[in-house]
Design goal:
Chains A, B: It catalyses: 3-hydroxy-L-kynurenine + H2O = 3-hydroxyanthranilate + L-alanine + H(+); L-kynurenine + H2O = anthranilate + L-alanine + H(+). The structure is a homodimer. Chain A has twelve helices and 13 strands. A seven-stranded mixed β-sheet of chain A has the order 2-8-7-6-5-3-4, with helices on both faces. A four-stranded antiparallel β-sheet of chain A has the order 9-10-13-12. Chain A has a two-stranded parallel sheet with strand order 1-11. Chain A starts with a helix and ends in a 5-residue tail after the last helix. In chain A, about 35% of the residues lie in helices and about 15% in strands.
């Protein structure tokens, strides 16, 4: 199909897009096509003023009183409630704080402590973002378990009487493959093991359905599709039915039933609060809270529909513009297996991504040879998408021309 | 001594105070006497503008590029280098990130892993801020150790052939007592055990001398005397001689030798970076970095001298104004045993602190009966100090009057 036809279609798709106006909420005025929201979400404009108030008034004027009066102390669970509907969790099960890595540690240790007696194996996603694997290994070492590395698709076959729990990424950070959360969770449960899911690359991009699918524990970051800001705090989901048995390896004073009693003995709080550890990093946390306002009035189902339309359209444009075989999509064509990014293998990926960024199309690189393009439906449109594919084709053509690229 | 004489002396002391002008760097324009900097440091004024730039330009405009171009990725170790001189550490040994509780966990697990074989006990400060005790207990449980609770002064007698490490608070959060870091550290080393110090209530208020006294590991928060903001990230010190053997229980991808290699196997980075875990919370971290500017040109020795003068003067004013026996100082009179706060036991402490705060003297309460007054030499003056004691006396007199208080 011709470039002109694609451009026209892109404009039509944007015109028909019910989410198109959301883009105005974000600081994206520089003409960049920002396809790296799966690494760092763009800035919701109002966060800057909100933080000026948090810093200037809440910290600067109210000072210590803000722990009560500005709701600082309860921020971890309050913001957890804002995230809960985005991951399909009823209230009281999500708490915000610490990094994803730290939450993976809490979740994996807690999971193996809840598992039936005598089970000594933790299944770990072979394609996981690396930190999960490193942390699971540490959790295993500290709790007398061993890790078994398996592809997510093979978890149902690998789970056995020795399996305590499995730690799986919902969407593969590299390829954008969406794994079968309901099926894998059910297979684990059938054999008495627990399911711990990492939602970093799915939350905010597609429906997760934690409660619906009976997930036991989950973690995720908030700086990708949730736009919480660089290194904004992660979250932990503990299914209500497990909360009484949630036995944290990081029982900091914020998770105590009476934190200001300051007693020598540890008595865990009830509910999701039990997943807290130390004093929450309020500035990062309240920036996240403000950022979540962009979700008001938006359903994750609408976001998912647009996400699939964007990635479909991008793949279509790439096919139309780029010579066959020059790049290879690592992202599944089937919707049921696709997250919200497109990963293209490309032998000269480092140089190509550098040129793309220089031309205002910002994706990122996963070494050695993967071009990653993340599609955040709240601020990426179809015209952006067509432009990204067109610029990619130009960059590849330049690289392949006799003059070199 | 008369009130008039005390007021005059206070003004003289302020006039002679070389640090007095530092107060202008802080947002303290509301007439409050802020004696709660040992809980939440006051706002350094310039942090607000700095954060507007971090949010608006670094995140909003540069977006993902800021991980390199704005120095986000290296913030944990860069800010560690700013804190290092304040705690007496040569470069390369301090890294910032995570909460104090999480850093206590790293430090205690790493310490027992470094300790000589066959040692199964961790000595824990009986007067510790509670989170350290809870976390040490968790670390002990996960590593096959047991905790032994001892008063800091008794550590030298309690350390024995079974002691792997001791975790001690440098300054008692409740009483303000300063413990003998050099002596306790030496006693531990003499019997082959490691010293882990919690500096939350000492760093930024007095010289710590980590290198000088051969401390093995240390942690501390940055939101008290370092004014980093609510819940700003904590730090971890690992003495250079131990860094090769620092075996983190939280080996997140940020501590990997090649984090962007994203390899399945974990290879720890060299140096203090090994203490990192997940993606750093950049907003909180860069607010802390900005806040540390108030230390430019100030020595911790000068701060210590003023701190002792302030707490001496406060105790003197309290003695002059408050009827004998109405309150009892829990803070040692000896300089060598005093941190930077004064704790007064008072039977009706909750009501008294409420009245103090209503009259613009902000300290805090430690249940059931302790009034805490923290003295931050960078922004508390002698006139403030006299006023605090005077208002305290008024509040107590009102409470004791026939009309009740």
């Amino acid at each position: 199909m011709s470039e002109t036809r694609m451009t026209e279609r892109a404009a039509e798709l944007d015109a028909a897009d019910g989410l198109a106006k959301r883009r105005e909420l974000f600081a994206l005025d520089d003409g960049t096509v920002y396809l790296d929201g799966n690494s760092l979400g763009a800035l919701p404009r109002h966060v800057r003023d909100r933080m000026a108030d948090v810093i200037g008034r809440q910290w600067g004027e109210l000072r210590i009183r803000s722990w009560d009066e500005s709701g600082w102390w309860t921020a971890p669970e309050r913001i957890g409630e804002r995230i809960a509907p985005l991951v399909g969790a009823a209230p009281g099960q999500v708490v915000v704080g610490d990094s994803t890595s730290v939450n993976v540690f809490k979740a994996v240790v807690a999971a193996v402590r809840m598992a039936p007696e005598g089970r000594d194996e933790i299944l770990v996603d072979a394609t996981t973002f690396p930190t999960d694997g490193y942390i699971a290994e540490s959790a295993a070492r500290l709790t007398g378990h061993r890790t078994v590395v398996v592809d997510p698709a093979d978890v149902p076959d690998a789970v056995g009487p020795r399996t305590a729990a499995a730690l799986v990424n919902h969407v593969d950070y590299r390829t954008g493959r969406l794994h079968d959360l309901p099926g894998i969770t059910a297979a684990l449960h059938e054999r008495g093991a627990l399911a711990v899911w990492d939602l970093c690359h799915s939350a905010g991009a597609l429906p997760v359905g934690l409660d619906e699918h009976g997930v036991d524990l989950a973690v995720g970051c908030t700086y990708k599709y949730l736009n919480g800001g660089p290194g904004s705090p992660a979250y932990l989901y503990v299914a209500e039915r497990h909360q009484d048995r949630f036995d944290s390896p990081l029982p900091g004073w914020n998770s105590h039933a009476d934190p200001f009693g300051m007693t020598r003995g540890y008595t865990p709080a009830e509910g999701a609060v039990r997943g807290r550890v130390g004093t929450p990093d309020i500035l990062s946390m309240l920036a996240l809270e403000a950022a979540l306002d962009v979700w008001d009035g938006v359903t994750v189902e609408a976001v998912r529909a647009k996400s699939l339309a964007l990635t479909d359209f991008f793949l279509e444009c790439v096919e139309a513009y780029v010579p066959r075989g020059r790049v290879t999509s690592l992202t599944p064509a089937a919707h049921a297996e696709r997250g919200s990014q497109v990963a293209l293998a490309c032998p000269d990926a480092p140089a190509v991504m550098e040129s793309l960024i220089a031309r205002g199309v910002v994706g990122d690189l996963r070494r050695p040879d993967v071009l990653r393009f993340g599609f955040t439906p709240l601020y990426v449109g179809f015209v952006d998408t067509e432009r990204a594919a067109r610029v990619l084709a130009e960059v590849l053509a330049a690289a392949d021309s006799p003059a070199g690229g």
